[in-house]
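BACKBONE GEOMETRY TOKENS:
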Amino acid sequence: MSLDLKNQPFDRLRLASLLDGVSFVILLGIAMPLKYFADLPLAVRIVGSIHGALFLALCWFLLTSLLDKRLSFKHCVIVFVCAVTPLAPFFLDHKLKAWRD
């Protein structure tokens, strides 16, 4: 995975998608079990806040990609649906690389 974050807004979208996917998996796989099985609701509060910020960043990069005509509306919808589906951003990444070219 090579990312050129200074020159490629599209690579920023890819990075935001992957970071959002990682935070979603951590939220569902670690923080939620800690809340319900270990009685640690603080884990969800912390990880949920981080995930929310990363999700908003992803939405921002999606909007800028749509407005700059880097992605079609259909592709933006696909990225958004994958963002709310666990593990989907990891499978989406290779498609994002293909859409960039």
Observations:
- Residues 10-100 form one domain.
- The radius of gyration is 15 Å.
- The helical segments are 9-37, 41-67, 73-83, 88-100.
- The chain has a mean pLDDT of 89.
